[in-house]
Amino acid sequence: MIHSPDMIAPKTCETPEEALAQVAAAYDTHIGFLRGRFDELVNGNTLTERSRAYYPYAKISTKLARRADTRMSYGFAPRPGIYSTTLTRPDIFGRYYLEQFRHIIKNHDIAIEVGVSDTPIPLHFALGEEFHLEGDLKPEQLQDLPDLFDVPDLSIMDDEIANGTFMPAEGQDHPLALFTAPRVDLSLQRLRHYCGMPAEHFQNFVIFTNYQFYIDEFVKIGEDKAQKNGYLDFTQPEPSPRLPQMPAYHLKREDGKGITMVNIGVGPSNAKTITDHIAVLRPHAWLMLGHCAGLRNSQSLGDYVLAHGYLREDNILDSDLPPNIPIPALAEIQQALEKAVGEICGFDGYDVKKIMRTGTVATTDDRNWELRSSIRQNKRLSQSRAIAMDMESGTIAANGFRFRVPYGTLLCVSDKPLHGQLKLPGMANSFYRQRVDQHLQVGIRAMEMLRELDPEKLHSRKLRSFNEVAFQ
């Protein structure tokens, strides 16, 4: 026997606001039901029936594949058919859902059907990111939990849609969004775990770094900018003897178009982990600001490297996005970064080349890559025309490409191991003091430039395949 909320009939919604209100009503009803039943269990009541609630869905049916503006990269169905997706957390995604509904209605002149799906909401996701089941239940109650409530099911949380490998079964709707509701909810939980703060704080523009020096500077800048120039507040993880694995810091705006900075630590595995989860928030851009080994003798310590291509030897995404897939540079991001370098560093036009070089960045999963045979590795680096080596940029760019999130990389040369300049303690400390503040200012300025672009101008058609979902 399964106990569920009273049925909510599907509703045809003519406006984005009506559709969002219906999504919120269905979601709140089903979440409220699960929480109420769980409270009964915690309070000692014996539950004899399985309690099950369901995610809301949005569905469209279109006979035409069209868009009002052919420059747009999203907001339309690629071909006639029926498209649907499950939805979650309208408190976090309300503004995002409104934008997607608005474009679909405008492009296809159709209504959006909102109803209750047949995808169960796992209890763990219904209770939110701040709740821990182990703290409120006895061991025997935890043991009985899977018989009383639905638990997370990894078989429906894959990335087949984003990877382009999802094939609808006969009679099954085509996907309307890259991520299903359970996949989104899993990432919201993981962001809380890895970053130390709920996902609701994340902003639409995200900077990644692998150095605490940058975070320290960002905290100073964030606290200074809070309540100035359109910024609302600055939030960071609660003080603790032990920081979360990849702490996140947020310079917030009312419209969500502030800047989040995350210290991802070292290596491509961390880079993939965090971007896998931040991608569900559908940010407008993410950047990597970090250090690199300069591969050209003409480079000086402190010079900038603007990546326009990636030699991917990180090996972390090979099964989802093979390394022979090109990762293109995005004009809007490249232009903003180059302009920001000139503005912050006091150079103009051709003179920017004095401190910045544009080229291919090689990304490796081996921190001690310098110890490999120079003959073997130098041939590959030379053939690719790589100008810098790091451990995260290729992964972050590739996952941006994979998840349709605009991406960019601006690195700073901290050593030149192929030319006898190794990163040693004294030299490194001096370098960090001289360059960190300027580098971070460049990244923040670039994000502020990108914020001035409408989302439809920023989300490039380069990131979309020939058979795309309608949601951005």
Please name the defining characteristics of this protein.
2 domains, five-stranded mixed β-barrel, 37% helix, alpha/beta, Rossmann fold, amp nucleosidase, domain 1, five-stranded mixed β-sheet, 472 residues, globular
Summarize the structure in words.
With 472 residues, the chain is of the alpha/beta class. It folds into two domains: 2-188, 2-Layer Sandwich (amp nucleosidase, domain 1), CATH 3.30.1730.10; 196-460, 3-Layer(aba) Sandwich (Rossmann fold). 37% of the residues lie in helices and 21% in strands. The strands form three sheets. It has a five-stranded mixed β-sheet. It has a five-stranded mixed barrel with strand order 12-15-14-13-16, surrounded by four helices. A two-stranded parallel sheet has the order 1-3. Helix 1 (16-42) runs antiparallel to helix 2 and helix 9 packs parallel to helix 12 (393-402). The longest helix is centred in the first third of the chain and has 27 residues, at 16-42. The radius of gyration is 24 Å and the shape is globular. The mean pLDDT is 90.
Query: For this structure, what is the CATH class of the largest domain?
Result: Alpha Beta
**Distance between the terminal alpha carbons, to the nearest Å?**
39 Å
- Low-pLDDT parts are none
What would CATH call the architecture of the largest domain?
Answer: 3-Layer(aba) Sandwich
Radius of gyration, Cα only, in angstroms? 24 Å
The side-by-side strand order for the widest beta sheet comes to 2-6-4-5-7
Tell the overall outline.
globular
Which series of helices and strands comes N to C? EEHEEEHEHHHHEHEHEEEHEEHEHEHEHH
Q: Could you tell me the mean pLDDT? A: 90
Quickly give the structural class. alpha/beta
Work out the number of β strands. Answer: 16
Number of domains: 2
The helix tally amounts to: 14
